[in-house]
Amino acid sequence: MADQQPAQTQTQNSAPVFHIQRVYLKEASLEQPNSPAILLEQEQPAVEITLHVAAESLAGHPDIHEVTVAATVTTKVKDKTLFLAECKQAGIFEIRNLPEAQLPPVLNVVCPQIVYPYLRGNVADLIVRGGFPPVHLAEINFQAMYEQQQAQQHQQVQQQEESAALPAAAEQKKKAKG
Asked: What average pLDDT score do residues 102-109 get?
């Protein structure tokens, strides 16, 4: 019996850990640069939404990560900005004993899925408090977004390698002819 306890404790210590420490609104702003004149426009505004995900380890705490999902909502009437709303929603996550290859997908897919509903609510609330109808952010497939980013990075690396190889090959040809 005494021999089983240390093995059991060791297994528990090496088991993967995923804890949500905190989810919080990191930043929010609403700008209405052309108010009040633009508020009298009757034309339907055009809405543009951009999202960004960022993850970083907190200094001195390699197992503690901050994941931020940022949204920018730009609404224009003709060529003038009606409003610009920016929100950053963040979460602090404790992630330990996870294989290194599994950490990026967790930070870029799982954590944003947890943070995003809070961001959606805060964006809609901020815009309504500014006197506008709410803008509801659509559901996001963070897995597809992450895979697309990985494919783009892979393509950029390949292009850089090919670009670096071309001058070296041309130099070798010059030496061979000379």
From this structure: 94
